[in-house]
Structure formats: structure tokens, C-alpha cells
Amino acid sequence: MKTLRDKVVVVTGAASGIGRATALAFARERAKLVLCDRNEDGLRDVEREIGSSVDHLEWHRVDVASRDGMKAFADDVHARFRAVDVLVNNAGVGQSGGMLDTTLDDWEWVIGVNLWGVVHGCHFFVPNMVEANNHGHVVNVSSVFGFFAPPGSIGYCTAKFGVFGLSESLRAELHPHGIGVSTICPGMINTNIVKTGRYSASTSPRRDEVVRLFEKRGHSPEVVGRAILSAVRRNRAVVPAAPEAWAVWYAKRFMPGPVATLTRRVGR
Fold first, then answer.
1. How far apart are CA 242 and CA 72, in angstroms?
2. Which residue from 71, 80, 91 is spatially nearest to 19, judged by alpha carbons?
3. pLDDT tens digits for 162-176?
4. Burial 195-221 (b: 16+ CB within 10 A, else e)
5. Which residues, in sequence order, are CB contacts of 112 under 8 Å at separation 6+?
6. Is the residue at 73 inside a domain?
7. What is the pLDDT of residue 97?
8. Are 95 and 106 spatial neighbours (Cβ–Cβ below 8 Å)?
């Protein structure tokens, strides 16, 4: 996709963090933006920030975990556009805890947003992309924890591994249709996900420490926004964004033994 000007771009979870940075990145390319999130105030702020720099911007309050909500959202978008050109399934939540203290409610919450949200986005938007035959692109935001799974975030890892596998399978399926699929693995990014995530009894004492670490060491969400633009332009399959994400990606592939040792140490 050589140019993004006037391309119809859907971004979920667009009110803050990576979603906001992605919306701004596509706005700079003069794309037509369709944004969704549960946070209406955040969406209004993004709309004001983008202003009149794009020819089309609309936003919707949507819970990506809701089948009916995502269907209504897609139906509304398709009433104006035959198909979107770029779908960015970004919406996500944080969860911390192991098998012994992660409740079923927490499992349903993190899987609902982080995995079912991506399934819903693909289910309701991809068929129209195939039918339109416009050679679009799907971006699914996974995580470093989509290929590296330390203990202590079992629900989050499960969801993000699911997104990684879904994306790999979907990329092969959509290749004959000329539609690219990219898996984004951001790394340590300074967003609100660690503040608003759910912590189990065993991990909640470390919450403030984790928040401070992300604020001090985390990279700007704009790093991921740029990575997503590059992925769409170059049709890249897997895109770690931050430097440490690249380091873990290569280590996992070429030094699995030391990575396994690191995983156990992270757990301790």
C-alpha cells in the first residue's frame, strides 16, 4: 500500500495510548478515519487534536468484546463505505495474575477484549474487504507476551498468543486476495494499560512499582504508531516495535534455552 491518503482506516481502542497514536499517524497521511472506543471523552479529545487535517473522521462508542456492538458498528461503517482499506484491531486491557489466583471473571474480561475483540473485528470487517477486492490490510496488535510467556500474566499471555496465531493463519488465508495481515508486538510502551489493568491478590502489591517502571522506562506510543504505518506500507508479517521487543523476538527464535531461564527468573 504505497499511499494511505483517502484510505478508510478503522482503529479500535483509539481514545488513548497506542490507538490514539495510530489514529494521529494515519491522520498525518490524510486517511479517512473511523475510530472506536468505550471512552467517549477520549475520542472527543482525539477528534479535536486531529481537527480538520483529514477529510473524514467519525467515532463510535463500542465495546469490542460485544458481538452485537461490533456488528452494529460494522454495519454502520458499511452503510457509508463498501469496505474499509485498513483495519487496526488495537483495543486491549491489562491483566496480571497466575492460574491459582486469576478468577473466571478476569479470564472472561481479558479474553473478551484482547482476543474476542480481534475476532469480532476480523469477522465483521474482513469479508467486505475480500468482496471489495481493494487489496487492504489488517493489523492485529498482539504483544511481546504473544510469543514470550512469563508467569504472572497468564490470562493476558493466553489472549495475546491467540492474537498472534490468529494473525498468522489469517495472513496465509488472505494472501490470495491481496490483503496483508501484520502482527504488532509493541514492547514496553508508556500507556494507561498498566494503571487500568486488573491485578490478582499475588500481583497487586507490585502494581505501583510496575506503573512507575512503565512511566520511567516505557517508550512513547508514537513508536508503535510509526511501526503500524510501516507494517501496512511494507506488508510486514510480524513487527516488534520497541528495541526490547526486537531483542526478545530474536532471542526466542535463536536462543530458546536462555529465554526459558529468563522466563523463570522473571517469575521469581
1. 35
2. 91
3. 999 999 999 999 999
4. eebbbbeebeeeeeebbeebeeebbeb
5. 65
6. yes
7. 93
8. yes
User: Residues 90, 136: contact at Cβ < 8 Å?
Assistant: no
Closest of 138, 111, 141, 112 to residue 125, by C-alpha:
138
DSSP letter for 13, please: S
Distance of CA 160 to the CA centre of its chain: 9
Q: Is residue 33 part of a domain?
A: yes
Give me the pLDDT at residue 268, please.
59
In a domain, 173, yes or no: yes
**What is the count of structural domains for the chain?**
1
Model pLDDT, residue 266: 65
The pTM score is: 0.93
Q: The domain containing residue 131 runs over which residues?
A: 8-267
Active site residues: 156
pLDDT beneath 50, residues of the chain: none
Helix (H) or strand (E) holding 200: none
What is residue 171's predicted lDDT score, i.e. its pLDDT?
Answer: 98
Q: Is residue 2 part of a domain?
A: no
Cβ contact 27:54 at 8 Å:
yes
Report the CATH number at residue 72: 3.40.50.720
